[in-house]
Amino acid sequence: MSQKTVAMLLAGGKGTRLGELTKDIAKPAVPFGGKYRIIDFTMSNLANSRISTVGVLVQYSPLMLNKHLGIGAPWGLDRQAGGLSTLSPYSDRTRSSWFSGTADAIVKNIHYIEQFEPKYLLVLSGDHVYQMNYRQMIDFHEENEADATISVIEVPFEDAHRFGILNTNEDGSIYEFEEKPENPKSNNASMGIYVFTWDVVKPYLIADEQDETSDHDFGKDIIPALLKDKRRLYAYTFEGYWKDVGTIQSYWESNMDLLDDNNQELVTSRSWEIYPNEKNLPPEYIGEDTEISNSMISPGSFIEGRIKDSILFNAVETEKDVSIQSSIIHPDVIVRSGAVLDRVIVMEGVEVPAGAVIKTPEGQEPIVISQSNIRALIQSGGHENE
């Protein structure tokens, strides 16, 4: 069962900064871009990179995520040799605990990795939006005879203090890692994408698991330990769109980015497709007097009114005289006649009452409208009747 590369996809974070969006579902399962979920981008990168042995590490609120992943058919991972495996915390005779860090999640599943006798371990996150050929990164790792390769993206220097920063020599070798430095020496931000030579990193993972003072984290513990021992670490520079969807603001921004002509290939490319696991729905219906500009309308929707700079998911219904601007409307939402929505996120299954006016004030994080809070929004003045 030997496989050259085993990918481990970390998809178990709580996602608390996404508030209502992750109240009942894992962050990677949050709807994104009209007909996708956030994790579809990483899963599609794996499919397009022809990496066919993938372990997805789940933890918090995994029901919808597990249902979405299934046996991996949309990404060609429904196979007996390798394929997709969903890995959750478990108890045995010696321990019973949640994953306590990124490295801990991997070491607790060493038995899964070892069965494939891999040469390389690819560690990924399930909550980033980007397109990357992991094969090219692995080739870079091999060419440099590296023990670890970390993908980096250049960020504005004024933002570098918010990231883990990798300082490199001219040949791309890493000599220092700084976690959110006050005065960064470079703007090479870690993307949380790692390629490790398995035989090298395995003993570090096992040793870290025994260290009670460790955070059991790749960035905080494993990478510094490798650097301390003067292992061969290299930075792989990524050029392209990349977004960590960690807050409501970044979630809204990354969806709105899809409406920019410069970013539309993220979901329209025929050479690097994003594969959704979606229902078979009829085409969308657009009413006779409907006005739509710079928006994405998904199948199964019945649309009337005015839609501008917005993303509408599957099976959305908007009635006459509705006005929706700069908003994200999740599946199965009904927006009744005369309602006005401006820079908001409406969660799945919500019915917005007739005449409702809900707008996010300028400079504030977009309002998230859910089944549980829409009444409170109405009572607090977030809603008014025309």
TrEMBL record:
At the top level, the lineage of the source is Bacteria
Query: Matching CDD domains, A to Z?
Result: ADP_Glucose_PP (cd02508)
Q: What keywords tag this UniProt record?
A: ATP-binding, Carbohydrate metabolism, Glycogen biosynthesis, Glycogen metabolism, Nucleotide-binding, Nucleotidyltransferase, Transferase
The residues annotated as site (Could play a key role in the communication between the regulatory and the substrate sites) are 59, 98
Catalyzed reaction equations: alpha-D-glucose 1-phosphate + ATP + H(+) = ADP-alpha-D-glucose + diphosphate
Q: What class of enzyme is it?
A: transferase
Q: Which family does it belong to?
A: Belongs to the bacterial/plant glucose-1-phosphate adenylyltransferase family.
Q: What is this protein called?
A: Glucose-1-phosphate adenylyltransferase
Q: What is the lineage of its organism?
A: Bacteria, Bacillati, Bacillota, Bacilli, Bacillales
The gene name on file is glgC
